[in-house]
Amino acid sequence: MEQEGKLNEDIIEEILSKEKPNQKERFSIPYEDLKKYLQDDYSNKQIENIICGLLKKHSLNSKS
Known about the structure:
The chain has a domain at 24-63. The chain contains three helices and no strands. The protein is elongated and about 60 Å long. It has helices spanning 9-17, 31-35, 44-63. By secondary structure, it is mainly α.
């Protein structure tokens, strides 16, 4: 970009201010806490599906 004369302070600022994938806020629950409520043989994907399903159900119930 610099060779084309298009890289300037504004463009640099814009690039640096964009949210990067590794900067997105994440939430985690310790596995030991989850094990209290779930079967030992559940895969991570199954656990994710259960949690998302419960959150969806909770969200729908709280809206009514």
